[in-house]
Amino acid sequence: MERLLHAKAHGVRVIGSSTLALCHLASGAADAYYQFGLHCWDLAAATVIIREAGGIVMDTSGGPLDLMSCRVVAAGTREMAMLIAQALQTINYGRDDEK
């Protein structure tokens, strides 16, 4: 979080619902989102909504999103998503298909 604040973030908002936060991104009310520990059912529908709105959804490593990895970076642009992914230290919460 501290690394992102040094990247000239205007603010950090935590609203308590990952799906709602991802839909805020799709609507343009937020610029980016990242989270570790989300399950595939938390991400599936919101991923479709963000991509249909023109946003980017990827793994926290900067690679393609793997719904089973329990981690996500989403942003309005690829550049913003990569900036966030590069600032993160990936945390492994396990995979949904291995539980």
TrEMBL record:
It comes from the Eukaryota. Pfam families: Inositol_P. Signal peptide: none annotated. InterPro entries: Inositol_monophosphatase-like (IPR000760), Inositol_monophosphatase_CS (IPR020550). PROSITE patterns: IMP_2. Keywords: Magnesium, Metal-binding. Belongs to the inositol monophosphatase superfamily. PANTHER family: INOSITOL MONOPHOSPHATASE, INOSITOL MONOPHOSPHATASE 2. This is Inositol monophosphatase 2. The gene is LOC103598171.
